Fold this protein.
Amino acid sequence: MIARVNALAIRMVLPFVAQQDIRYYLNGINIRPLDNGGAMIIATDGHRYIVARDPHGFVEREVIVSVSKDAMKHTGSSKHTLDVMSNGAAMISGEVTQPLFIQPGNSLIDAAFPRIERVASVTGYKEGISGAVNPKYLADALLIGKSFGGSIRFFTRDSDSPLTFVLGGVGELECFGGIMKMRESFETLSAWFPLPGEVETLDDI
């Protein structure tokens, strides 16, 4: 076995995995060991990213794993794990290590995964939302927070840096992500809207 991580972490990051991208390494989940112990689980489609930390995860070496959507039905418990073998076999195991779902074929993707550290940062961020973001990506982040029954907070640095979100209330797991900003032509409220004072109260409409 080269990796074993909490199945809930896989459930968190799987919606952010790229779908049939020519950058084939983005079609998988990156699992990396952390210097202070545990495992870091990462997914990105190039427009957004999500990172989860499993403090009890085991990773012998960094891997990229393809995880089927069919595995999702078995990732709803923190007692379940994703187990990855050196021969490329991957499975979702139950609390007594019995296989609940076995991934068909070789699940390992032989490639280099992009370093999220190049775009993800916590320096200079303040709580709040600013800048233009894809509403679908924003909705997906909110859906993850809703699915795990926890909380979500957003942080912004400037109009170019990713909109960062942090999930809370997900047990021993830690999770944050980012959504890349869009470049839009509008920067202020619409100029055609009446100026203040032209309508005193709503009764005057």
In short: The chain has a mean pLDDT of 87. The chain has one domain: 3-179. The longest strand covers residues 48-54.
